[in-house]
Specification:
Blueprint: H1 7-27, E1 32-34, H2 35-41, H3 50-63, E2 70-72, H4 73-85, H5 88-99, E3 106-108, H6 109-126, H7 134-145, E4 153-155, H8 156-163
Antiparallel strand pairs: 1-2, 3-4
Length: 176
């Protein structure tokens, strides 16, 4: 029940896609969005940090599903849909792909440390009283998910079950 789209809903969706297509073709007359254009949309330029540039490249790579180095209209629509209307599980899977820099399907300590550094930077900017060492928190995550001390990577399943269901505060070691 509620799964079927009415004709009016289909018409609205079609009009939205037509508007997206017009915008896409006006911004990308070649029919493809290239990395340099994607970076320009997000304000990444020569003055941007290496981290900002790398993050934007990872986001672009995650949306370039056929790995041809450009985003076609279908990839663009899928990206817009994911960001605006996607299910939480799909957004988690996408965020995992963004940080899986080498594309091996797992996050290693270096990749997790980068995620945590970005999160920590954002959180401390919003609340300077937040403390915690990123490397210690990363070590704690790996300790908690690795019960037999052989985990060198975090898979998407572990991410869903652990990283996104535990609070930042719960990852800090209590000393004492």
């Amino acid at each position: 029940m509620g799964q079927m789209q009415s004709d009016a809903e289909k018409e609205v969706a079609l009009k939205n896609i037509q508007l997206l297509y017009r915008k896409f073709t006006s911004e990308c007359p070649s029919g493809n969005l290239h990395l340099h254009e994607f970076k320009k949309i997000f304000g990444i330029n020569r003055n941007s940090t290496e981290e900002e540039s790398a993050y934007t490249e990872n986001v672009f790579r995650s949306f370039d599903t056929n790995k041809d180095g450009q985003m076609d209209f279908m990839e663009y629509v899928a990206a817009v849909h994911l960001v605006l209307r996607g299910k939480l599980e799909d957004k988690l899977r996408w965020s995992f792909k963004v940080y899986d820099r080498d594309g091996n399907g797992c996050l290693d300590k270096e990749e997790v440390t980068l995620i945590l550094a970005i999160i920590h930077k954002i959180r401390t900017k919003n609340d300077p009283s937040i403390s915690g060492n990123v490397e210690d928190i990363c070590d704690r995550i790996f300790e908690l998910v690795d019960k037999n001390n052989d985990c060198r990577h975090i898979t998407h399943d572990i991410q869903v079950k652990f990283l996104w269901r535990n609070s930042w505060k719960g990852l800090k070691r209590t000393r004492g």
